[in-house]
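Hi all, long-time lurker, first post. I run a small reading group and we've been trying to get comfortable going from sequence to structure in the token notation. Rather than ask abstract questions, I figured I'd post a concrete chain and ask someone more experienced to write out its structure so we can walk through it together at our next meeting. Sequence below, copied exactly:
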Amino acid sequence: MKAQSKIWMDGKFVDWDDAKIHVLTHGLHYGMAIFEGIRSFKTPDGAAVFRLQEHIERFLNSAKIYRMDLGYSVKELVKACVDLVRVNPSKEVYIRPIAFTGYGEMGLNPLTSKVSVAIASWEWGAYLGDTTKKGVRATFSSWVRIDSRSMPVQAKCAANYANSALAKMEALSAGYDEAILLNTQGVVAEGPGENIFRVRDGVLSTPPASSGILRGITRDTVIQFARDEKIPFYRNDATKEELYTSDEVFFSGTAAGVAKVSEIDGRKIGYDGTPITDKIAKLYDQTVHGKVKRYSKWLTRVP
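-- Answer (accepted) --
Happy to help. Here is the structure in token form:
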């Protein structure tokens, strides 16, 4: 991770090394933090942030679910992200807005602590590496995706990602690149930090929101690509066996991009290449780098 020079904290830019919080920060102890993952890319017209408005709207929706008053509007936070990219040296970066209950009274009631908001950025390559050729080696986790009756899965909350971290560590310790989580009904949910798609007989599908997934913005992007490219698509539940016998499987997410899955639990996925995955991955890469006019509305330019 290559550090940048400035971080936005509670409305002001501070030096990277001065972006500090107290060890008794409430969110550190009780997981009361909501965040987003956003990317800025280099385009022919300069730096641009991909689907910034949608990410910030989801950020505020997460805050609403957790009764967190951020004190900033969508417009103000969009501007803060753009300004952050502008003042820092690197332009192709990962952007992390985060809001958390700060230093104050300890205890389970978060409403006694002030909410702080910060935005950082750093250079970060594809989360799962270059998967163009080799693909991702995945495994089904023994950990189950958290249930919406226990935690609000549509809020991108730090506490939720302890579940993801357990699955990720388990996969890595077993020699795999990534995990796939089932939900409490035993059907496919998502990866630790990605949504999942499968292709069978030319039809693209992904688990519905009711499976306990986070509605990913990259997921939504892939769905729009499928519609525009006339690729048959639907949302439906899938079992482990259905993933094993897919023609293609891929992850999607801001950190991962569109990442081809080459095997699951030692089982090779497909037999005849990955034409739909390759098509969507190429279109995604061209879109985020400002090379597809049709999707230019998704890019927020950095002056």
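A couple of things your group might point at:
The chain has a mean pLDDT of 96.
DSSP finds seven helices and 17 strands in the chain.
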